[in-house]
Amino acid sequence: MKALNRTQVAEWCEKRGVWLSERDGLAYGSVEPRSFVTAIPRDRGLLGWAAGIALNPTDEAFEGGLVYVRSEGRQPETWDYFHGLTEATFGLLRQSPDWRGTLERFPGQQFGPGEASEALAFVTQLLLFSPDGYFVPHSADYIAEVSHDEVVSVHCRDALRYEIMLRSAVPVVGPSGILRR
After folding, report:
1. 118 within 8 A of 1, measured Cβ to Cβ
2. Residue 16's closest CA among 61, 63, 71, 50?
3. Which of 6, 37, 78, 108 is most buried, most CB within 10 Å of its CB?
4. What is the sign, positive or negative, of the torsion defined by CA atoms of 129, 148, 35, 177?
5. 29: how many CB neighbours lie within 10 A of its CB?
6. What does the alpha-carbon distance between residue 90 and residue 40 come to, in Å, rounded to a whole number?
7. CB atoms inside a 10 Å sphere around CB 141
8. pLDDT of the chain along its 181 residues, tens only?
9. From CA 27, how far away is CA 83, in angstroms rounded?
10. What are phi and psi of 40, to 5 degrees?
11. CA distances from 72 to 64, 85, 133 (A)
12. Of the candidates 68, 62, 48, 141, which has an alpha carbon nearest to the alpha carbon of residue 110?
């Protein structure tokens, strides 16, 4: 695991065709992604399932990736209630004795192929405390955007990844409106 500052996050993303916008969001630079939105389960016992979808929806080996938390200035008002707790939890996960201010200084966390459990812990924090954040796998085939609105938006680089991700989730809204199975 490696904590990354915004500049390092932007460099990591740029190498993969993903851009960090001025509004502190992640998006594909030159690809029109296929996207869908799925609700975060109200039953918090299902958070592991939701985190698993964001991280690795197939039987493929975990390839590593990046968790990115948007800056405090871009968070919803409810963020004030969870900021300290989220920051402390991320600090503990990073095994950092001086965790105060670390989310603002190091909003990104990079994971290697052998760090699936660590990545799952970070993504679960996004789902639990609902800050606006992202998970991008090393290949950048998709971007999982976790929102304070309790939804996960999945943006896929191509049709194949879209189909894989769509099968692994319970979609609520898609490009053409409500999706039903």
Report:
1. yes
2. 63
3. 108
4. positive
5. 11
6. 20
7. 17
8. 888 999 999 999 999 999 998 888 899 977 777 998 887 766 655 566 566 656 665 667 888 999 998 876 655 555 555 556 566 666 656 665 555 566 778 888 898 888 888 888 888 777 777 678 899 999 999 998 888 777 888 899 999 888 888 877 754 444 544 443 3
9. 24
10. -75, 130
11. 25, 13, 11
12. 68
**Reduced to 3 states, what is the DSSP secondary structure of residue 175?**
coil
Structural domain boundaries enclosing 95: 2-178
Q: Which residues pair with 134 in a beta bridge?
A: 68, 145
Matching residue, tokens 């001086």: 98
Q: In angstroms, rounded to a whole number, what is the distance separating the alpha carbons of residues 117 and 2?
A: 14
The count of structural domains within the chain is: 1
Q: What integer pLDDT is reported at residue 13 of this predicted model? A: 95
Residues with Cβ within 8 Å of 73's Cβ and at least 6 positions away in sequence, in order, are: 24
**Token duo for residue 148:** 């304070």
Quick one: tokens of 70?
């948007």
What type of residue sits at position 105? R
